[in-house]
């Protein structure tokens, strides 16, 4: 991979006292370290449970450096030299000031008083002109040359290259001269209210800068497509006194925009080197291909990356090293991930009444990490080292290398992932479970009847129920179905197969809900097809004249759960709901969409449920194996934070269609409904993660419920849900035995069989910083950071959360720079190869509608976005925070491949082009004003750009290769996302283009967020402060 670098140095201000272990400022000692994350500041550093981001620790000596690989990436304006794909090492954690990733206040009211006068635009232009890009070769250090990293050097008056590792302390304040030197690199916007200034992007940048004011602060990506409004600016108060610029050196050419690391380049390089190949999981600690690279996974002893991805595949061997490195140690586990048709499905192991073989001490399941000894009569557990007897029925002799001779015949000894048939000991009340049931609950209030939604749902259910999921060996699905409608009261339907007509029973007492019938409520669809179809025809007519606009919500979930409980089976509720539940009943809600709370300490309450009844309901649902999928059709505020809570904690899925119109939105909704009903899943699931000695799982993030500190409970788990698990050291790790992880999920299958799904993964351990950085995966890191941040906003001010994100980014990179890069000027920004695109994703996360803190974004939209992301896997967060932008005008209609994506920036758009943007939730087709008429004609079947209607949400089926190719590309993108993406057609220079531009994440946002380059400058400034 090309490793590139750049110089950029805008400032960040001093810290907020009292957060974790960050020092409140340069002049004060650090608070006691909290090796955790966003946590209650009252927690001690030895707290056993985990918190979120690792904060700083007092400085000791740097961890020992390994022998870095013998290649370094060199970069200058004229050339890029490719080295092997690279490494990185770790470094100390620095007690430095927390960045003030401050609140979004009006430009005239910065969050803090500004102590540093802005430098002039002309001064900025000179500074940018003086940035020079130097390559540097191997250092004279006694070790081998350092690992590849990226660096662009600025010709600044900076200290001489560092020739030894620094031992930083949180001692006296920075000297004025150093402060001047640092501040002199800062664009004006960085030290005043606006975002940090950028490094030069192109030859015209000086001209642009002299004509334009610095842009406003951090914006959202509008999920809700709120109308564009002027955004308030982000304050970056000056943390250091400013002084005259101290720049030297001849004028240099401007930085090429392509000189900063490109996610597209990283993705394409990985596709070239690893795409289309077989990835065998036979090596502990190997880094898998990126999630964006297609390959065939062959299980040879470790779980496939489809099930298991890690932030680092080599863990630091000690807690001290982990604190120093600041890299979160986490795994993103997707236990029910789909595998490709040409990959082997999981084997099912059945040991009969004996059940799975487990370690007597730690209860880990038999797996490839167990070592057989004493001629095969005993085995030593790979997790806790306990020696166990081998049961007589399981005995087998060992070969000449100490391996059982049936090693390759037993999936549990030779594969990373497999399943066990569970015995009655693993069942509730020691009774075998019943097959699950699906209950469809339809809101028949006035608005849903009038807009045709109820009729649409009923028509679709008649056909989609033929596609209920089933086990592969079954001819028909064993899932039973039931139907309820509701407004202020509940209507249950008896659809027993021997009835001529369905029967309705009304429950008016919504305060104490009960199920009025058992026999005939949950039925086999095939047997009761005619009665069910009859009912689905009658429901829209039955309520056609309703004037009832008030609805209940909590009683509906209660009723569905009680029905499943009475039938003694797990199941799923499909609830179709459209309004705030204002009827007198448990769970009644009031409108509280108070945008005045944005950017205040009370903003976190907007993400919390307004009543605890939904929390209690979620707990009861999980205990009874009742999963809730919620389809929302709001035309105004519905309090997603409250009514979506049960869905989130039960492992369900939330779908939301704002201002639903049958003619324009039914395609998206019906695709979602079909996909959701047909999905294969496990019910009544409990997941436990076991680890080898020396570290343990401390925190779990996802659409889950936790009754204790170890068991992750999910009423259901499907192929799209992922749980992010964080690990923490409790002792030293052994480099020889590595770090072993076993994830076991106990669940009920769709046929009603209790099964165990086991995934095993072995990671390496090292006392060398270089090895840890080299093994990092940026996409997994972002998944961890976003979930940690989205969890933290429930209890902490958003400003604090944003500060921690920026600070942690800078600390990880400064740590690498201090201990791993060859000595060079502090003004040079050097990034580890494995994290070189981390800043672009982090900036995108900070601009997301959840963290942006903009009053223009609806509270519901932010809560919805937060809930979606909490359940996402690595591929989902990767695409969401760096959307795919495809140039349609350059696609080869004869080739099977997509056109190569371009970077998410307006600079990459062209007036003569068509671009398709997809982020997994939204999809846009952008049309340039000079797009070729023949292309427009071929895709839209209209003569020119002016004739294209932007109202359409699906493309017409035109009989030509161009149209077919584009539609097949869209279908493929849709198939990879758990959600159906509604296509919005956007014309260049028309008003809706503002919405589209929110997704061009490398640019400054029209709502005020900094560009990728600006953010790099901020991070670099933070790193410089840490290093100095």
UniProtKB/TrEMBL annotation:
One of the GO biological process terms: COPII-coated vesicle cargo loading
Membrane in keyword set: yes
Compositionally biased residues, Polar residues: 1-16, 74-93, 117-137
GO CC terms of this entry: COPII vesicle coat; cytosol; endoplasmic reticulum exit site; endoplasmic reticulum membrane
Record-annotated Sec23/Sec24 trunk domain positions: 433-676
UniProt KW keywords: Cytoplasm, Cytoplasmic vesicle, Endoplasmic reticulum, ER-Golgi transport, Membrane, Metal-binding, Phosphoprotein, Protein transport, Transport, Zinc
Domain Sec23/Sec24 beta-sandwich, residue spans: 682-765
Record membrane topology: Peripheral membrane protein
Domain Gelsolin-like: 899-969
Record localization: Cytoplasm, Cytosol; Cytoplasmic vesicle, COPII-coated vesicle membrane; Endoplasmic reticulum membrane
SUPFAM superfamilies for the chain: beta-sandwich domain of Sec23/24, C-terminal, gelsolin-like domain of Sec23/24, Helical domain of Sec23/24, vWA-like
Family stated for the protein in its record: Belongs to the SEC23/SEC24 family. SEC24 subfamily.
Stated name of the protein: Protein transport protein Sec24D isoform X1
Organism: Eublepharis macularius
């Amino acid at each position: 991979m090309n490793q590139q670098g750049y110089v950029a140095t805008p400032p960040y201000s001093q810290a907020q006292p009292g957060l974790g272990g960050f020092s409140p400022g340069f002049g004060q000692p650090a608070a006691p370290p909290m090796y955790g994350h966003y946590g209650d500041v009252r927690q001690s550093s030895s707290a056993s449970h985990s918190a979120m981001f690792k904060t700083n620790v007092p400085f000791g000596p740097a961890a020992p450096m390994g022998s870095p690989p013998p290649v370094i990436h060199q970069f200058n304006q004229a050339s890029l030299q490719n080295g092997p794909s690279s490494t990185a090492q770790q470094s100390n954690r620095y007690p430095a000031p927390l960045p003030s990733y401050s609140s979004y206040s009006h430009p005239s009211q910065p969050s803090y008083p500004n102590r540093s006068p802005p430098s002039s635009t002309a001064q900025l232009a000179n500074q940018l002109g003086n940035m020079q890009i130097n390559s540097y070769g191997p250092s004279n250090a006694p070790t081998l040359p350092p690992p590849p990293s990226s660096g662009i050097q600025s010709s600044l008056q900076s200290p001489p290259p560092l020739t030894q590792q620094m031992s930083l302390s949180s001692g006296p304040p920075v000297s004025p001269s150093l402060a001047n030197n640092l501040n002199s690199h800062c664009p004006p916007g960085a030290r005043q209210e606006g975002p940090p200034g950028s490094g030069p992007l192109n030859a015209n940048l000086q001209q642009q800068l002299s004509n334009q004011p610095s842009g406003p602060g951090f914006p959202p990506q509008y999920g809700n497509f709120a109308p564009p409004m002027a955004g308030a600016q982000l304050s970056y108060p000056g943390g250091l006194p400013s002084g005259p610029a101290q720049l030297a050196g001849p004028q240099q050419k401007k930085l090429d925009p392509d000189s900063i690391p490109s996610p597209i380049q990283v993705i394409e390089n990985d596709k070239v080197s690893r795409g289309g190949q077989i990835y065998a999981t036979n090596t502990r600690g190997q880094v898998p291909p990126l999630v964006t690279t297609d390959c065939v996974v062959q299980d040879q002893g470790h779980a496939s990356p489809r099930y298991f991805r890690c932030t680092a595949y080599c863990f630091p061997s000690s807690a001290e090293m982990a604190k120093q490195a600041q890299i979160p140690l986490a795994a993103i586990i997707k236990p029910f991930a789909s595998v490709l048709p040409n990959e082997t499905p999981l084997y099912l192991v059945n040991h009969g009444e004996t059940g799975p073989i487990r370690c007597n001490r730690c209860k880990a399941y038999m797996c490839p990490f167990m070592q057989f000894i004493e001629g095969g009569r005993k085995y030593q557990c790979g997790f806790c080292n306990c020696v166990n007897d081998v049961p007589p029925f399981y005995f087998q002799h060992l070969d000449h290398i100490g391996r059982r001779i049936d090693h390759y015949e037993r999936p549990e000894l030779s594969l990373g992932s497999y399943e066990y048939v569970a015995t009655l000991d693993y069942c509730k009340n020691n009774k075998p479970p019943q097959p699950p049931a699906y209950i469809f609950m339809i809101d028949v209030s006035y608005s849903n009847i009038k807009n045709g939604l109820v009729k649409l749902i009923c028509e679709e259910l008649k056909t989609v129920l033929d596609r209920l999921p089933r086990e592969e060996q079954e001819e028909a699905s064993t899932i039973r179905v039931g139907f309820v409608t509701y407004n202020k009261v509940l209507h249950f339907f008896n659809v027993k197969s021997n009835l001529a007509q369905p029967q309705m029973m009304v429950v008016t007492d919504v305060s104490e809900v009960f199920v009025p019938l058992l026999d005939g409520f949950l039925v086999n669809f095939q047997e009761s097809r005619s009665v069910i179809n009859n009912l689905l025809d009658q429901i829209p007519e039955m309520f056609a004249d309703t004037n009832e606009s008030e609805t209940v919500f909590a009683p509906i979930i209660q009723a569905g759960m009680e029905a499943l409980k009475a039938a003694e089976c797990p199941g799923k509720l499909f609830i179709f709901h459209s309004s705030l539940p204002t009827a007198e009943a448990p769970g009644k809600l009031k409108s509280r969409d108070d945008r005045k709370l944005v950017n205040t300490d009370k903003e976190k309450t907007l993400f919390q449920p307004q009543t605890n009844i939904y929390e209690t309901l979620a707990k009861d649902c999980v205990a009874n194996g009742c999963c809730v999928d919620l389809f929302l059709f709001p035309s105004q505020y519905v309090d997603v934070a409250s009514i979506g809570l049960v869905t989130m904690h039960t492992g369900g899925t939330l779908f939301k269609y704002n201002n639903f119109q049958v003619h324009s939105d039914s395609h998206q909704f019906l695709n979602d409904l079909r996909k959701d009903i047909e999905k294969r899943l496990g019910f009544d699931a409990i997941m436990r993660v076991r680890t080898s000695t020396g570290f343990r799982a401390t925190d779990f993030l996802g659409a889950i419920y936790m009754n204790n500190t170890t068991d992750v409970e999910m009423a259901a788990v499907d192929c799209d849900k992922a749980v992010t698990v964080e690990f923490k050291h409790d002792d030293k790790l052994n480099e020889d035995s590595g770090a072993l992880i076993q994830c076991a999920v106990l669940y009920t299958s769709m046929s009603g069989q209790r099964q165990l799904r086991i995934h095993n993964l072995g990671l390496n351990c090292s006392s060398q910083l270089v090895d840890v950085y080299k093994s990092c995966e940026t996409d997994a890191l972002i998944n961890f950071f976003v979930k940690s941040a989205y969890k933290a906003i429930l209890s902490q001010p958003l400003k604090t959360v944003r500060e921690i994100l920026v600070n942690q980014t800078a600390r990880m990179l400064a740590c690498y720079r201090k201990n791993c890069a060859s000595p060079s000027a502090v003004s040079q920004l050097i990034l580890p190869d494995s994290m070189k695109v981390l800043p672009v994703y982090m900036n995108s996360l900070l601009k997301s509608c959840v963290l942006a803190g903009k009053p223009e974004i609806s509270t519901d939209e932010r809560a919805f976005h937060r809930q979606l992301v909490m359940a996402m896997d690595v591929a989902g967060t990767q695409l969401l925070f760096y959307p795919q932008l495809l140039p349609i005008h350059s696609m080869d209609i004869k080739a099977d491949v997509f056109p190569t994506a371009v970077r998410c920036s307006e600079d990459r758009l062209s007036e003569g082009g068509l671009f398709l943007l997809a982020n997994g939730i939204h999809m846009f087709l952008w049309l340039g004003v000079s797009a070729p008429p023949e292309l427009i004609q071929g895709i839209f079947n209209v003569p020119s750009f002016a004739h294209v209607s932007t109202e359409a949400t699906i493309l017409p089926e035109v009989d030509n290769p161009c149209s077919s190719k584009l539609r097949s590309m869209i279908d493929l993108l849709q198939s990879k996302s758990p959600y159906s993406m509604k296509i919005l057609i956007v014309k260049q220079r028309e008003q809706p283009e503002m919405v589209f531009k929110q997704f061009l994440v490398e640019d400054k946002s029209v709502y005020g967020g900094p560009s990728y380059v600006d953010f790099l400058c901020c991070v670099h400034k933070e790193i410089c402060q840490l290093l100095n």
